[in-house]
Amino acid sequence: MAEESFYGVTLTAEENTETWDFVDEDYSRGQKLVIKQVLLGAEAKDNEFNVVEVTTGKDSIQIPIAVLKAGETRAVNPDVEFYETKVTFKLIKGSGPVYIHGQTIKDDVEVVDMEEED
Amino acid sequence: MAEESFYGVTLTAEENTETWDFVDEDYSRGQKLVIKQVLLGAEAKDNEFNVVEVTTGKDSIQIPIAVLKAGETRAVNPDVEFYETKVTFKLIKGSGPVYIHGQTIKDDVEVVDMEEED
Amino acid sequence: MAEESFYGVTLTAEENTETWDFVDEDYSRGQKLVIKQVLLGAEAKDNEFNVVEVTTGKDSIQIPIAVLKAGETRAVNPDVEFYETKVTFKLIKGSGPVYIHGQTIKDDVEVVDMEEED
Amino acid sequence: MAEESFYGVTLTAEENTETWDFVDEDYSRGQKLVIKQVLLGAEAKDNEFNVVEVTTGKDSIQIPIAVLKAGETRAVNPDVEFYETKVTFKLIKGSGPVYIHGQTIKDDVEVVDMEEED
Amino acid sequence: MAEESFYGVTLTAEENTETWDFVDEDYSRGQKLVIKQVLLGAEAKDNEFNVVEVTTGKDSIQIPIAVLKAGETRAVNPDVEFYETKVTFKLIKGSGPVYIHGQTIKDDVEVVDMEEED
Ligand SMILES: [Mg+2]
Ligand SMILES: [Mg+2]
């Protein structure tokens, strides 16, 4: 069974960047971050777009993953995974608050060890 | 196969807090709570925000997981998991009712026991 | 591999209740009902709330799982599971029609039988 | 690992019916169709309901799985599975176009063959 | 455990086409692309439909998988998979930007090798 933890971070105009990196260097295989929901706070301004951009270490992909706007789109459910890579989330438009929810997972390394001595 | 149960709790202005903790202390590994949906009741007031905040025992994360408002957002689907940690849900804004739905899961501890005597 | 079947029921003002119970008593382990979607029919009245409440046999939980309203919320996706328990769905508000969709699943009982005679 | 293929069909007023049946008769176990999304086309008429009904071979269930309307509900995500059964999709209301998306899956038949000769 | 990478591409009027093909020819089995979300950018024009069409190499299926419009539908979550096939995404209507999110996955080829020498 994989070992996992809840991941929850808040982005605002003042603190608009958050980076996730490999949590455990001794456990080099199978670590990932899964983003399930990006949610706009009740305090968000009317008619203001709030855009969260992601930048990955592996492959250097840079792309918005959430476009939120009060009265139109309160939440999106990207359900994307970042596997064995550093990831940075940045609120590139809007003043938030925006909440990012997901899991960090350390996948099982299946060890099958069968020793038979006759 | 994992053993699981439906999880459903109601938050209102009067009863605005609910805590989930490890159900079975004798079964220490792999217990988790999965939150699939947070739903605003038909009785909710117009134009009132209803916000559910989560606080975790492990890592002490405190963050809203649902922002609901009649006429705009009736339900969100966070699909987040709380693994081997106490979790408290609190209705920090609005009078509800708000319904939280999910599963509690006790994961299988796979026991592979291979004894061979020749 | 699990054995599964599509589950689809319709609730209306006249037939407002539906109960699911263990399908196969001879197969006592691992039977569950998964509810993926609750959908409001095209014939539903404007501005009328349609609320589906669930009652479980195990733990006796009673809670709405869908709040639908034409022009606001046409469908919700609870994605909840009822495992080894009787479940009753009731349209407690509104005249429908409301459609409930999901799966019934009989999980595999893994039988590992290794006999070796030398 | 299961063998799977993308499933995508278009329903219109003129071609309003589509049937899926077991693809491979020689592979009798574990074939299923999963419906992930039903989407209303940009050409759909304003204020017209578009309803997709499903009829199953096994258990003869007949029920709408999508109710779509421009300006209100552009897409639904039923996430339902049809396992070892013929399925017919019919656009019973509206002129479309409506797009149905999912997967066909042939599940693995796990063959564990352990022969030991001493 | 499968090896996976985040997939994120941007379509605009100027660069309206993107093709995904087997990443690794030496690893011929089990490669797929999963599309989780298609999201309309904050810069999209009001009342303009943005439609993303997919064309597959295997079975030559051609069908829209996303119909987006500012003020109505900001994002869809198709959750479809393209398995062992080339796939082309094209923005056939609208000027975007439209963001496509998902994963590329190389499934595990399970190798069970049990050698016993007595
Ligand atoms: Mg799911
Ligand atoms: Mg899913």
UniProtKB/TrEMBL annotation, chains A, B, C, D, E:
Primary location: nucleus
GO molecular function (one): histone binding
GO biological process terms, semicolon-separated: chromatin remodeling
Superkingdom, taxonomy of origin: Eukaryota
Subcellular localization(s) per the UniProt record: Nucleus
Domain Nucleoplasmin core: 6-104
GO cellular component: cytoplasm; nucleolus; nucleoplasm
Family, per entry: Belongs to the nucleoplasmin family.
Protein name: Nucleoplasmin-like protein
Protein species of origin: Drosophila albomicans (Fruit fly)
Encoding gene per record: LOC117575140
